[in-house]
Queue: 2 jobs
Job 1
Amino acid sequence: MKTKILIFLFFTIATSVFATNEFSSQGQSDPWTQQQLLAPADLAKVLNDPKAPKPLVYSIGMQAIIKGSVDIGPTMRPENLNTLKEKLNKLPKNTQIVVYCGCCPFSRCPNIRPAMELLKNMQFTNYKLLNLPQNVKVDWIDKDYPMNE
Amino acid sequence: MRILILFFALLLFGGTISAQSTGLEPGNKSPQIKLPNTKGDTVALSSLKGKLVLIDFWGTWCAPCIAEQAELAKLYNKYKQSTFTNGKGFGIYGVSLDAKKSNWENFIFTNKINWIQVSDLKFWRSPVAKTYNIQALPFNILIDGNGIILAKNLHGTDLEKGIASYLRKLMTEN
């Protein structure tokens, strides 16, 4: 009896460890680091503070929902990625930039990777991806963070 | 031993269950939706009263939603004339969370979608996303002829099984 329980426990723990590893190894192939993820609460705080210097916030998805953000359009499309590139070309490399999409969970968002790769390849030094792991509704709108009119 | 296994199974899956048990539950009345179709005419969810209805929340930007549309077409054409235990006929009320009309309209036209399609083109800011407490797409709700929620978020083989389970069995009827 005890052996059976131990075997069951072993498999339970092994499965959860495996699942965690799988998740983190997927993350390693993404073109951003953990340090480049910006918490929505932190951006909301900056946007709500009239005195705080604001980063340039680009919506690289369907709609510029976040207050003050500039609509680029889905960067899965080359023409939109090009629009972003043209805007970035005019900026100093150390400009504070935040990009977000928020259509879908990170794992299947088609827009964040091309944009983050572009920023990396253009050698920007101060850019972040807004951490909206589920979507812009759950991680921003539902929290009553500031939005464009 | 069985109790122990059950205990660990609950430990394992408990988180998943609680994470999904948000929003409207089976047995509740589905809130009314009144949104424009591609022509701009307002179509109410209640216009399908009397039918078994699948409210399909989707968007052209959502890959799994797009993948599901072919399956929905199959089910719609198969069951639209069927009689169910709680409704006569089957309807789909598609609510798109698109932001651009051209994307939405082109998809409907190209894929010859022949069921009701509405959208306020407000993406995740659509008030229906809040009313229906949608956490992710695709999301759907199956309602009976009186608008009572029967099931939610049925996908893949579960969707057809769910619809078919309400088919009126002529044998038992007689």
Job 2
Amino acid sequence: MFEIVKKEWLHEVIFLIEIKAPQIAKKIRAGNFLVLRMREGAERLPITVAEFDRKKGTLTCIIQVIGQSTKLLSTLEKGDFIQDVVGPLGKPTEVEKYGIVGIVSGGLGIPLANLVAKEMKEAGNTVIGMVGARTEDLLVWEDEMSQYCEEMRYCTDDGSKGLKGFTTHLLENAIEELKKEGKKFDVIFTVGPTIMMKFVTQITKKHNIPTIASLNPIMVDGTGMCGACRVTIDGKIQFACVDGPEFDAHKVDFDELLNRLDQYKKYEKTALDKYNKEHGCGGKHK
Amino acid sequence: MTEEPKKRVHKRSEKTPKKTSMKEQKPMDRIKNYLEVPFGYTEAEAVLEAERCLHCRRAFCQEGCPVDINIPGFIDAILQKDFKNGIKIIKETNVLPAICGRVCPQESQCEAACLLGKKEGWEPVAIGRLERFLADWERERGRTTPEVAKSTGKKIAIVGSGPAGLVAAADLARLGHKVTLFEAFHKGGGVLIYGIPEFRLPKAILAEEIETLEQMGVEIKYNTVIGLTYSLDDLFEMGYDSIFLGTGAGLPRYLGIPGESLNGVYFANEFLTRANLMEAYKFPDGSDTPVNIGKKVVTIGAGNVAMDCARTALRLGAEKSYIVYRRSIAEAPARGEEIHHAQDEGVDFNCLSSPLGIMGDEKNNVIGLECQECELGEPDESGRCRPLPIDGACFDIECDTLIIAIGQRPNPLIARNTPELETHKWGGVIVNEETGETSIPGVYAGGDIVTGAATVILAMGAGRTAAIAMHEYVMNKK
Ligand SMILES: Cc1cc2nc3c(=O)[nH]c(=O)nc-3n(C[C@H](O)[C@H](O)[C@H](O)COP(=O)(O)OP(=O)(O)OC[C@H]3O[C@@H](n4cnc5c(N)ncnc54)[C@H](O)[C@@H]3O)c2cc1C
Ligand SMILES: Cc1cc2nc3c(=O)[nH]c(=O)nc-3n(C[C@H](O)[C@H](O)[C@H](O)COP(=O)(O)OP(=O)(O)OC[C@H]3O[C@@H](n4cnc5c(N)ncnc54)[C@H](O)[C@@H]3O)c2cc1C
Ligand code: SF4
Ligand code: SF4
Ligand code: FES
């Protein structure tokens, strides 16, 4: 059993939890993730660690309520327990001194990229953050990541903050501006919705910028035994939970990944409808 | 006792040629539930079956059992209706008889060696069913916790709670060591919990075994992935004197044909983990984990894993369940009983059919499998006849779920994070076969992680071998 020592709503559908898990906190690195199982009968839910405190032995996760499992997690409060927490899973990010590192993240991008930005900066890189969301409210936790970034660039679909448009526009602009100064990105790290990563990768391919994508396929065990998370990298099957979740983005078959993410649509709806019927609609204002 | 003890009869002429049949759920009923298929012998049936034994002077049956159970001894005890003694005899060498009696491939082990079955038209003594009978007899009467020796003050770490780890843990706990069992999953049992379905091995049996271990003082730490949560060095630093690796063969093999990542295509491990460990058969009431099951399900392979998938598919609501296998049924590696049960339940066997490619629609959903018809050629290295393609003979099977069940390789996680641990090219951990010792002093290994996918009883045997060597190692360690 793992205690939730802090819980905070950052937005109507986004919340933060701090979980007490000293051994995992000791080992966690940027790029790693956890698998949570809230109670008997619950799904195994993969979640990234956004921040940690080795001294306190805690892990901070930021979660967006999407379907049944994330909703269930959102009902737990400070002092409640999560039945199972496994980690640190996956390979840590390959952090080295690249030079100029661009981080392109969307959706719940900031929490997912926070530790990568931190470690990249600590390794002596100049980090430029390019983050986007549908609207300003969804850009949670920007102060955290700003600490590690030389510069933060924002975009929103509705123009409520930063550029009106997508992260791909931010990226293209940044590439052009650097070019004018005679510079270039040495590496791009991208995380967020798969469709966004696909388009980001098309741009970086065109400009020949090495790119790391943190993939988020559907997972079951998260330890490399089931193959649910398989992705095709350079024509070969790889398991994102143990061989990744970060891969050379130029080699990822994004279309296949997009398809595989939709496999359980009808079941997810069944589960969510049932949950809503029994527990109300959840979220911050349930 | 009111009855006379039974006499031992040595003559074949006084025996019946066929096994005493075991009652089971009817195929049309059982494919609608998840309950165990065979009911097990009653006392009378067990004694009747025990009467078939020839009481051979040389116990061929025992030679066929990988853990050397005194089979004539326990059969004799059944004959004398001394069931208590019978189970005691088994437990001298096999701590998990309720499991082995159900899942051991008896027809290639003890029962293959039984003299009674050596004559044309005769079946061997149903050793497995008798073993199961005794184990269940004991379970129904409430089992006792084995005695534990005085504490030695030594600490042992067991990694993986499959049959190899369970047996090593039990043996070492009994010798007085402080044993901690580390398991990556949220439940113990390894393949016994995530792979083998409830209708073949009720989970309650496993739960009891694990409870017994805990009563013996074994601490179980779930959700702990060794190699990630703790390294082997961490374990030594924490004061463990010796480590056993029983992490199994959990890495799915795949075919390398087009279409393996289409939606609706599963590796057996995922399909079974969803169905068993995550209990997807209860979705959405009681389990939040779904499994995508179509009307027509194809399973590729013919081992135990494949039979479990094909039969689970029926229980999850598939209208049609097919097996596609490239050799003939005689070559199929599954237990005979599983093949018969699958056939009775209406699983459609397409043997001598080799998969060429998986077909999908424009939305990337699987719609069928293209197969190549084969004929049997000369035996290959494995001793089984090699399937040879018949020119031009191809056919398609329509399906909306496809399961790849062609084997597993050793779990690579620990080796990957422990460079000093020597492994074969194919992934198996290299050990001294007599002791289970690996290339790292104090670290032992056994079960599927060493042999590649094998059997429950071999994994248990390996757990025991290592436990003996580990005991010696820690007791002699300064
Ligand atoms: C390595 C990894 C790290 C992640 N980190 C975070 C995180 O830090 N914060 C966070 O909010 N979310 C994170 N996710 C995504 C999170 O796991 C999914 O949102 C969650 O599984 C959805 O479950 P649900 O039952 O609430 O919704 P569901 O009803 O199961 O899913 C709704 C939709 O979400 C998508 N989805 C389903 N399962 C997954 C999955 N395992 N991964 C990605 N998308 C999925 C599908 O497109 C699906 O149609 C991560 C996923 C992975 C694989
Ligand atoms: C579906 C199926 C049906 C089968 N049917 C039969 C049958 O009828 N008869 C028969 O004899 N055999 C059968 N087998 C084979 C048999 O189950 C295996 O040979 C046996 O379970 C191997 O035991 P093991 O202890 O070596 O490993 P496993 O049973 O595989 O257990 C390994 C355990 O280690 C855990 N683990 C792995 N890595 C780590 C890590 N890094 N840290 C912590 N824990 C870890 C795993 O989660 C797992 O619980 C079947 C196998 C399958 C998959
Ligand atoms: S353990 Fe297996 S091989 Fe040995 S007697 Fe029992 S069923 Fe036969
Ligand atoms: S070989 Fe068969 S008949 Fe002979 S003792 Fe063993 S079980 Fe009995
Ligand atoms: S989630 Fe099962 S292998 Fe990756």
